[in-house]
């Protein structure tokens, strides 16, 4: 990674595009400012549905028994506003908020050695999420890269050691290996040696590191995406920490992959790709994908005085709380007659084509609920029905004002007699701690008769045995109506 300075002295992070560029810079890598170390995660998690209930005691699930989730960032080739180490004046750059639902973040681009920018590493590590960079070779250029790497055992190990050095120097946890060009059959053993050597070396140098193989080249060197784990790509899976399957899977392929992984007792090391653009995904992606995928929007306080400012390194800890009522609430198989005589799209069935009579088309219909809408998804048709907030306490993102940065969470109280779980965080402490909340009341509520009640913020602290309500000991007036309690 080179840190370049433009005419305006902005520090910019760049990838390495060739082997020569990588090797020539290894002895003169420019250090970043302090990188946040990977935060230790709890040994348990809560299910989203359980966290949304009114029960005070939440069921803990063993983290090691739950599926793992990767978010692969593939945004317009990468290195956009996030390449600026000290931030930029942008206000609409892509940001990720839902760190609590993923285990690993992959920064992806189509350069040879893609290194996660500084801000992404720090934001992920603050939330206990591992970060991987990407090694990708494609087309004729990719063939040339591997010919050089495979020329001798020393060259093979040189490339692997360079990748370990880069990950260790910039403080991230490993690599996604994406070989999207053919490999000579006689060189497959050399590629496998590289994968094993890289995996072993990075494990020696970085605790908790990972090497993930992308489902692309087969064990005979052909570029042939399998879309499942099988004997055509298992040689790579068995040589590293996991495999990222291509997007064109099916339910049968998933079942076969699971059966294959179970033989090695490695079910949690198989990741199934879901492309948000729907390229080749079952159902076509988007709202019509097999599991209805969408990009959630959240809130982040990023510093500054509310002006446009993008700097991932300034992203504060995103509290662990799922969106209220954000889930699939019903799934139904709808049977429709695909040949209704006389309709515009279906002309009358001719007598000489009886096989077309009574042909029934089955369509899966989803009903999906968010905090504000109920969505019905049937085939390529999506309809929305707004939910009435009457009587419901709910949150919304407010970007018109903020205490410190780009926005804040606004809590709308319709029923002050019930509680609403604002934040859900794990605290493991052996000494006294102090918790504070910075808030302000909406001007419209200045004369509300319930103001006194609403102003009485409190902290509910619970463990496996009891729940305790703690009242504040002090309130401090801040600027512009904000208070710290």
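^ Assign residues to that structure.
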């Amino acid at each position: 990674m080179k840190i370049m300075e433009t005419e305006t002295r902005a520090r910019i992070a760049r990838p390495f595009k060739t082997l020569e560029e990588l090797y020539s810079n290894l002895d003169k890598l420019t250090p970043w400012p302090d990188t946040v170390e990977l935060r230790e995660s709890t040994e348990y998690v809560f299910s989203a549905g359980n966290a949304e209930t009114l029960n005070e005691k939440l069921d803990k699930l063993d983290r090691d028994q739950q599926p793992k989730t990767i978010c692969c960032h593939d945004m317009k080739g990468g290195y956009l506003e996030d390449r600026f180490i000290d931030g930029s004046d942008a206000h609409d750059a892509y940001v990720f908020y839902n760190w609590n639902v993923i285990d690993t973040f992959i920064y992806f681009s189509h350069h040879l050695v893609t290194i996660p920018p500084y801000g992404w590493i720090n934001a992920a590590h603050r939330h206990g999420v591992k970060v991987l960079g990407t090694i990708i070779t494609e087309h004729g250029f990719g063939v040339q890269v591997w010919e050089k790497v495979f020329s001798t055992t020393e060259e093979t190990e040189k490339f692997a050691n360079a990748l370990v050095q880069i990950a260790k120097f910039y403080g991230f946890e490993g690599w996604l290996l994406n070989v999207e060009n053919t490999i000579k059959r006689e060189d497959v053993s050399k590629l496998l040696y590289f994968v094993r050597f890289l995996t072993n070396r990075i494990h020696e140098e970085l605790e908790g590191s990972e090497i993930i193989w992308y489902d692309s080249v087969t064990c005979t060197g052909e570029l042939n995406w399998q879309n499942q784990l099988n004997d055509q790509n298992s040689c790579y899976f068995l040589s590293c920490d996991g495999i990222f399957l291509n997007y064109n899977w099916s339910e049968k392929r998933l079942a076969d992959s699971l059966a294959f992984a179970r033989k090695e007792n490695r079910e949690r090391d198989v990741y199934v790709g879901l492309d948000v653009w729907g390229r080749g995904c079952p159902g076509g992606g988007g709202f019509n994908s097999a599991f209805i995928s969408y990009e959630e929007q959240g809130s982040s306080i990023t510093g500054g005085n509310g002006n446009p400012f993008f700097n991932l390194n300034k992203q504060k800890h995103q509290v662990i709380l799922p969106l209220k009522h954000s889930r699939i609430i019903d799934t139904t198989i709808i049977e429709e007659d695909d040949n209704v005589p006389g309709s515009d799209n279906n002309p009358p069935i001719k007598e000489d084509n009886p096989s077309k009579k009574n042909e029934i088309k089955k369509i899966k219909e989803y009903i999906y609920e968010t905090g504000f809408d109920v969505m019905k998804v049937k085939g390529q048709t999506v309809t929305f029905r707004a939910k009435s907030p009457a009587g419901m306490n709910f949150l919304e993102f407010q970007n018109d004002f903020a205490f410190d940065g780009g926005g804040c969470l606004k809590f709308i109280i319709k029923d002050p007699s019930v509680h609403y779980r604002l934040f859900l965080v794990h605290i493991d402490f052996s000494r006294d701690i102090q918790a504070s909340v910075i808030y302000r009341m909406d001007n419209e509520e200045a004369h509300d008769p319930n103001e006194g009640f609403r102003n009485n913020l409190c902290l509910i602290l619970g463990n496996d045995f009891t729940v305790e309500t703690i009242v504040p000991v002090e309130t401090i007036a801040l600027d512009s109506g904000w208070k710290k309690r």
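The radius of gyration is 26 Å.
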